[in-house]
Specification:
Structural class of chain A: alpha+beta
Helix content of chain A: 40-55%
Subcellular location (chain A): Cytoplasm
Distance between the termini of chain B: 16 Å
Mean pLDDT of chain A: 73
Shape of chain B: globular
Oligomer: heterodimer
InterPro entries (chain A): Rab-GAP-TBC_dom, Rab-GAP_TBC_sf, SGSM1/2_RBD
Structural class of chain B: alpha/beta
Helix content of chain B: 40-55%
Largest interface: A-B, 64 and 48 residues
Protein name (chain A): TBC1 domain family member 15
Largest sheet of chain B: 6 strands, mixed
Function (chain A): Acts as a GTPase activating protein for RAB7A. Does not act on RAB4, RAB5 or RAB6.
Strand content of chain B: 15-25%
Pfam family, one (chain A): RabGAP-TBC
Strand order of the largest sheet of chain B: 2-3-1-4-5-6
Shape of chain A: globular
Number of helices of chain A: 29
């Protein structure tokens, strides 16, 4: 059967590549099965297992992770686990991180809301498991088939009904089974805890405490909230036992000291979101704190700024808390970065400069193409000039493809009509309050439409998705030139394309990484979100999707959005500064969020309305400090290939593109 | 406690294709304002409005969601606990009408209400003001026939721009959401509603 599939899909390079990968992991599966059999919880019976069940964390085939899917029966409860194979992929260290991030261990079916089955005619079958918390695991692709058997096995042990509305959706613990569900959920905490604590994969790479890894190192069932909270409370009383708490404490202390110092020096009034009671708590902790490391940091800070004579020394010390923001990069300084032929001599220094100060608005159209990767830093004037002319022709060619579709032809081209309709609906409501896009028949609005439609032909698989017009609008505003705007947008979408993928993989990966970062950098806040059913971080969806772009009413706000973007685009310190920026904002309002006992709805509303009020410079400094504090542990929270990370290895692929975009 | 809070708050979800006027309808009803400059909704947002019904005060929480199908995986988080679902289409765009069925089904799957057969939906045919009605492609008769076939869903023709029929539609929405509530209360102790289940569990254990 597999051969027949292979035959049918012989022309599908994506499919072929992963078949190779699939067979490679098949060879490894012998050893992994022995290892994983040791991870059975006590008394659990394996009722189903399937090898080569794979997740696609990014759209790149090289980053797929294969593993073994199992169903374990323990007493009356059924659990699902998915353990990735060890040592997969070219970068063993990275995949070890992924292993821990993506491992699904002992999820009880009482916590599963539904399973959606996808059986495309082309490509592999996959399932999406949706938890009652709203969190969904990444799609699990069955390279060797077996979805039917999987569902049949579940049905033997758990109440499973096919949705009356969609034959491909299977509801677990449907309402008819209310009583059974209530009963079985009562026995949950113990069962989950035993399943988790006996799993050997838990204790591997992350250097945070055992308990932290147990309840946070991977996806897990959420039914054990109460118990975990109990455990956490114990830990809070004993910070030395938990490195993530230490990081938190350290950050709070250092931040407080650095803030007070810099406030004195600059006479700056800094609304930091930390309340008096927290300050007292920090003081208390400081007095009790014996770590010489923290004491050293604290002592260093006061003399950080005045000793500005040696730039290196200056940098080392101020790294403890975000360096003061600088003035934007200006024209004279910018020209000094070039050699006689137009190469940027020291791109790292340039990125650093922009990271701390941004770019003067007059220079943006020159600088952004470099930051976005459209122009190479080591290209010459002549090379860039040539590239621009070649790319202009290429743009015109692609644009012609849709422009040449006659209205007669369009009548028989539903997909084109629908796509054009979507784009046209969105461009007329993108930043129209700015004078640049203002008024009837505004030519710039038409340019937005042309560029987006051309992009949807340039990358037909990805097509057009809402949010793209928000990303293009500032680029066109800066670049002014149609073809140049297009290619800068293309470069940006190389990084952010997965955000707009049909399976929302890029978004889920980022929100997942964000939850890991908050857990590392503010575990009380993490616990609060966990208890309040907010761990899906959907309230940060807009921040991440359109890069903190806000409801723009004035040029001033537009300017601030562009500033955040260019700082993030430097990828100085981290490619994922935007995630630390999210953490920084949440930390600023942590007292309000927890103090007012915000639930998911209130939190979403609060964050949606926050957009105009974020203190940009201060939050960037916080984000920088958090990134430094988190260090390797922070980087380990973010799976490789998480947008905007650039592709590792092969080119761009957008899977699951068979469904029509418009319904 | 959980039940008294639920009784006060009525959650309404507005669904429909991109650009049919979901945000505009919500703003017209809550703020009595119309703007040509609403942005495409990214993620989700909601507005609340106090309503009085049979001498009782309720908070209507109206959720506005992204219309592009690609964002539907978010629905699970936003739809749950809904008391009423408003399906909106543009009377000038056939496709938006044809998709109503999909939106209805998608809602039932993702929100998994306790009694899907009787869950209150309401259909709004919006933008009847456009071009004096000359560009209209979905007739009222056709829309009413579809609503009848789906268990007599109440139907309103609206213009968010001119505020036509919006108040009446939302009054119907509020009263239907309210009708859905008593049942919820009865079932609350055993309901699979996640939020309520959690609260119950945590108060039980702490």
């Amino acid at each position: 059967m597999q051969e027949a599939e292979l035959h049918d899909l012989a022309d599908d390079a994506d499919y072929a590549a992963s078949q190779q990968q699939g067979s490679a992991s098949l060879m490894r599966s012998d050893s992994s099965s022995r290892r994983s059999s040791a991870s059975e919880p006590d008394g659990a019976e394996v009722v189903y297992w399937k090898d080569n069940v794979t997740i696609h964390p990014t759209q790149y085939a090289s980053e797929r992770i294969s593993g073994r899917l199992r169903l374990n029966k323990q007493g009356p409860s059924l659990f699902m686990t998915w353990i990735p194979y060890k040592g997969q992929g070219s970068n063993a260290k990275l995949s070890e991180r992924d292993r821990n991030l993506y491992t699904i261990r002992a999820v009880p079916f009482t916590e599963v809301r539904s399973i959606r089955r996808h059986t495309p005619t082309l490509g592999w079958q996959y399932i999406i498991v949706v938890l009652s918390s709203g969190l969904a695991f990444p799609p699990l692709y069955f390279y060797n088939g077996g979805v039917k058997e999987f569902l049949a096995t579940i049905k033997l042990h758990v109440f499973l009904v096919r949705s009356a509305e969609d034959a491909n959706v299977f509801l677990v613990n449907d309402i008819q089974d209310r009583l059974q569900r209530t009963l079985s959920s009562l026995e949950l905490p113990g069962a989950v805890a035993s399943g988790l604590s006996s799993s050997p994969t838990v204790g591997e790479s992350l250097s945070i405490s055992n308990e932290d890894r147990t309840d946070g190192g991977s996806f897990d069932g959420s039914a054990s909230h109460v118990q975990q909270n109990g455990r956490r409370r114990q830990k809070v009383q004993d910070p030395a036992r938990d490195l993530s708490i230490q990081v938190l404490e350290k950050f709070s202390l250092v931040t407080r000291f650095a803030r007070e110092t810099t406030s004195q020096i600059f006479g700056e009034i800094h609304s930091d979101g930390y309340g008096d009671s927290e300050r007292r708590a920090h003081n208390q902790t400081l007095q009790n704190y014996s770590s010489s490391e923290v004491a050293n940091d604290v002592e260093k800070v006061p003399d950080e700024v005045p000793v500005a004579s040696d730039p290196l020394e200056f940098e080392k010390k101020t790294l403890v808390w975000g360096k003061p923001r600088e003035a934007p990069l200006m024209s004279d300084e910018w020209s000094a970065f070039f050699d006689s032929e137009g190469r940027i001599k020291d791109s790292e220094a340039l990125k650093k400069r922009i990271f701390y100060g941004g770019v003067d608005y007059m220079l943006r159209n020159e600088v952004w193409p470099f930051l976005l990767g459209y122009h190479a830093f080591d290209s010459t004037y002549a090379e860039r000039e040539y590239l621009v002319s070649v790319k202009k022709t290429e743009y015109e060619t692609i644009k012609n493809q849709w422009q040449s579709i006659s209205s007669e032809q369009a009548k028989r081209f539903t997909k084109f009509r629908e796509r054009r309709g979507l784009v046209e609906k969105d461009v007329v409501r993108t930043d129209r309050s700015l004078s640049f896009y203002d008024g009837d028949d505004n030519p710039n609005v038409n340019l937005l439409r042309d560029i987006l439609l051309t992009y949807s032909f340039y990358n037909f698989d990805l097509g057009y998705c809402q949010g793209m017009s928000d990303l293009l609008s500032p680029i066109l505003y800066v670049m002014k030139n149609e073809s140049e705007s297009f290619w800068c947008f293309v470069a940006l979408m190389e990084r952010l394309g997965p955000n707009f993928n049909r399976d929302q993989n890029g978004m889920h990966t980022q929100l997942f990484a964000l939850s890991k970062l908050v857990e590392l950098l503010d575990s009380p806040l993490h616990n609060y979100f966990k208890l309040n059913d907010c761990l899906n971080y959907f309230f940060c969806f807009r921040w991440v999707l359109i890069q903190f772009k806000r409801q723009v009413t004035w040029e001033f706000e537009f300017e601030r959005t562009m500033r955040v973007w260019e700082v993030m685009w430097t990828h100085y310190m981290s490619e994922h500064l935007h995630l630390y920026f999210c953490v920084a904002i949440l930390k600023r309002y942590r007292r309000k969020i927890m103090g007012e006992q915000m639930d998911f709805d209130t939190l979403l509303k609060f964050i949606n309305e926050l957009s105009g009020q974020i203190d940009l410079d201060a939050t960037l400094r916080d984000a920088e400090a958090l990134c430094v504090c988190a260090g390797e542990n922070g980087a380990a929270c973010i799976p490789p290939g998480t947008p905007p990370s650039l592709p590792i290895g092969e080119g761009s692929l957008y899977p699951l593109q068979d469904d029509d975009d418009v319904l | 406690m959980a039940s008294s809070r639920r009784r006060m708050l009525l959650k309404v979800i507005i669904l429909g294709d991109s650009g049919v006027g979901k945000t505009s309808l919500m703003n017209q009803y809550v703020n009595r304002k119309f703007s040509n400059q609403y942005k495409a909704t990214i993620g989700a947002d909601f507005l609340t409005k106090e309503v009085q019904f049979e001498d009782r005060l309720f908070t209507l929480q109206i959720w506005d969601t992204a219309g592009q199908e690609r964002f539907q995986s978010l629905g699970v988080a936003f739809y749950r606990g809904a008391d009423c679902c408003v399906l909106v289409y543009d009377v000038n765009v056939m496709k938006s009408f044809e998709n109503l069925n999909h939106w209805r089904e998608e809602f039932l799957i993702q929100a998994s209400p306790s009694d899907p057969e009787n869950f209150p939906f309401i259909v709004l045919g919006n933008k009847i003001d456009v071009d004096g009605g000359n560009s209209r492609v979905v007739s009222e008769k056709k829309a009413r026939a579809w609503c009848a076939s789906k268990g007599n869903i109440p139907y309103f023709e609206t213009s968010a721009k001119e505020g036509f029929n919006v108040e009446a539609a939302f009054q119907c929405i509020a009263s239907n959401a309210l009708k859905n509530e008593p049942e919820e209360e009865i079932y609350l102790p055993d309901t699979i509603d996640v939020a309520a289940g959690r609260q119950q569990r945590s108060t039980g254990c702490c």
